[in-house]
Amino acid sequence: MSLGKFINKKTTACLAVIATAGANTSLFAQEAAAGAGAASKTVDMGPVYKSVLFYTLLFLLLCLFIAIIGKALRVYELTRTAQDKPEGINWNKINAVLFALFLIVGLYGVYWEYTVHGNMILPEAASEHGVQVDKMFNITLIITTIVFILTHICLFVFSYLYRHNKNRRAYFYPHNNALERVWTIIPALVLAVLVVMGFITWRSIFFKIVDPNNKPLSIEVTAQQFAWYLRYPGADGVVGVKNYKMVTGLNTLGIDFKDKNTHDDQATEELVIPVNRPVRMMINSKDVIHGFYMPHFRVQLLANPGMVTFFEFTPTVTTVDMQAKTNDPAFKYVLLCSQICGSGHYNMQRTVRVVTQEEYDEWIAKQPTYINNDLRKRFNLPLQAEPNATAPAATDSIPKDSGAVRKNQLALLK
User: Fold this and answer.
1) What is the DSSP-derived secondary structure letter of residue 330?
2) Per-residue pLDDT reduced to its tens digit, 236-276
3) What is the DSSP secondary structure assignment for residue 81, as one 8-state letter?
4) 21 to 9, 65, 188: CA distances (angstroms)
5) 234's torsion region: left (phi>0), alpha (psi -120 to 50) or beta?
């Protein structure tokens, strides 16, 4: 629709009149409320300026302004027609100028997005494969941005140059084989290169060759509304098996303790991983589909109920080093859920800490095993001594005289 037809529409004018009446009613009510109060008090307009209704009324007021201008221009055109004078306003030229202005504003919008929102992206990748993913993303973004800018310049410049002119006839140009070959073959080649690049990157992430001198650390991650449960392999380096049929209130993960590899598995509240060592995540879910998402490592994979998925990556930047790079002492890596899994989805996260191998060894040695004495009783396994348990005193060491007993009690009270 042309600008001339838009501003001459009666519907626009009617909506604007209704909006103005509503705005005036609101203003009169506000003035009455202000007059009823103390004369020294000023009305706080902050909530009004933050409301959606305020900006809706402003938009409708703008529509009214455009409609009034349109009616005035329409009267002007009818007057010139009645006086047998030539057309006073060339709407085709006005539309062409608006196209050119829109091109300038749009190109500035692209620049603004890159300079403002571009600074809001994640910091540099903290994993080996993340560098490859970022490189592929940047190449794709640069190519598509160049194509976007060039095509829109052509679109709006042609709209400006070849606007309607009653003294010029359009040239009928239905077909050009050479031109169609160019705009078909070039995009096909570019897309083929991007697809091959993505395929190579994908295979390098999911099909890794295990280095016997640097075997990956396996960590099991179980998702449940709305938490992540972590299990480390223990001293044997093997995460024991589990079976969903064995899930109970006591054995919440369904660990099968008939498998001896489960006896030294450790449960932790924090995901701690050593830097420059491969980490193999074993991801599953107990209820619905969740999204295992660690943005700084460029790791994202679905956690599906009834099956285990794997993701192996190598962290390259410790938490301390990333705090220095981002100049943020409070920076933390996080594990999030990228799927809207329920009302508590927003709170489903864990802190991730990347540390040196020495710090990791010291930390993992302090973590408790998943199996406790209650589970050992349930599965008829030998009990372990409680860490804070003390041997009972011998019966012959108890003082027999009342004075000694009283002294002992006073010593205990102290």
Assistant:
1) T
2) 888 888 888 888 888 888 888 888 888 888 888 899 999 99
3) H
4) 19, 14, 57
5) left
Nearest CA-CA partner of 90 in 189, 15, 166: 166
From the number of C-beta atoms within 10 Å of its C-beta (0-12, 13-18, 19+), residue 329 rates as exposed
Instruction: Give the integer Cα–Cα distance in Å for 296 and 338.
Output: 14
Phi and psi at 307, nearest 5°, equal -150, 160
Closest to 110 in 3D by CA, of 84, 148, 78, 75: 148
Beta bridge partners of 242: 255
Backbone region of residue 325 per phi and psi (left: phi > 0; alpha: psi in -120 to 50; beta: other values): alpha
Residue 286 and residue 224 in contact, taking contact as beta carbons nearer than 8 Å? yes
Task: Indicate the helix (H) or strand (E) that contains 94.
Answer: helix 91-115
pLDDT at 76 (0 to 100): 77
Q: How many residues does the chain have?
A: 414
Where does residue 126 rank: exposed (0-12), middle (13-18), buried (19+ CB within 10 A)?
buried
Q: What is the pLDDT of residue 393?
A: 44
Angle at 231 between CA 228 and CA 234, to 5 degrees: 165
Q: What pTM, to 2 d.p., does this model score?
A: 0.67
Average pLDDT, the chain: 81
Q: Which residues contact 134 (CB under 8 A, 6 or more apart)?
A: 124, 125, 298
Instruction: Provide the residue type at 325 as one letter.
Output: K
| Long-range contacts formed by 401-407: CB under 8 A, 24+ apart | none
